[in-house]
């Protein structure tokens, strides 16, 4: 099992965010843009993903969450031109001048499982 990070910049309510994401099978995944390359950070450990969120997002400004990704989801991301960055450590990107944390929409074949991390 893999974990991706989703975030909402305020365009949707929490209910709309989860409902639309699950029902319409799209993933607003966190991406890292660096050197003209866009990568989707993924994690095999949910605690590492949570620490990444805490290091890179201001909790009071954006809504973040973990998204469980299957092998098929990862392949769909790659097939649609996404590069996957498998992180074992919660690297800090938010203060780096050579990269930007952003969101990109990926459509998948299945209904994604959105969960909170507590």
Q: Top keywords for this entry?
A:
118 residues; globular; three-stranded antiparallel sheet; 3 helices; 7 strands; four-stranded mixed sheet; alpha+beta
Structure report:
The chain is of the alpha+beta class and 118 residues long. It has one domain. It is built from three helices and seven strands, in the order βαββαβαβββ. It has helices at 14-24, 46-56, 71-79; strands at 2-8, 26-34, 37-42, 63-69, 83-86, 99-107, 113-115. Strands 5-3-2-6 form a four-stranded mixed sheet. Strand 2 and strand 3 form a beta hairpin. The longest helix is centred in the first third of the chain and has 11 residues, at 14-24.
Write a brief structural summary.
Helix content is 26%, strand content 38%. It is of the alpha+beta class and 118 residues long.
What's the SSE blueprint?
Layout: E1 2-8, H1 14-24, E2 26-34, E3 37-42, H2 46-56, E4 63-69, H3 71-79, E5 83-86, E6 99-107, E7 113-115
Parallel strand pairs: 3-5
Antiparallel strand pairs: 1-4, 2-3, 2-6, 4-7
Put simply, the count of helices is 3
Instruction: Determine the mean pLDDT.
Output: 83
Q: Globular, elongated, flat, extended or rod-shaped: what is the shape?
A: globular
What are the low-pLDDT stretches, counting only 5+ consecutive residues below 50?
A: none
Secondary structure: helix percent? 25-40%
Number of separate strands: 7
Distance between the ends: 18 Å
What is the total number of structural domains? 1
> What class, by secondary structure content?
alpha+beta
User: What series of H and E elements makes up the topology?
Assistant: EHEEHEHEEE
């Amino acid at each position: 099992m893999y974990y991706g990070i989703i975030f909402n910049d305020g365009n949707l309510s929490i209910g709309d965010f989860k409902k639309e994401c699950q029902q319409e099978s799209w993933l607003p995944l966190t991406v890292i843009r660096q050197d003209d390359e866009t990568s989707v950070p993924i994690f095999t450990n949910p605690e590492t993903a949570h620490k990444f969120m805490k290091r890179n997002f201001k909790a009071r400004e954006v809504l973040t969450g973990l998204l469980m990704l299957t092998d098929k989801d990862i392949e769909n991301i790659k097939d649609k031109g996404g590069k996957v960055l498998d992180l074992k450590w919660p690297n800090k990107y938010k203060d780096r001048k050579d990269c930007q944390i952003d969101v990109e929409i990926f459509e998948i074949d299945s209904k994604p499982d959105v969960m909170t991390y507590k």
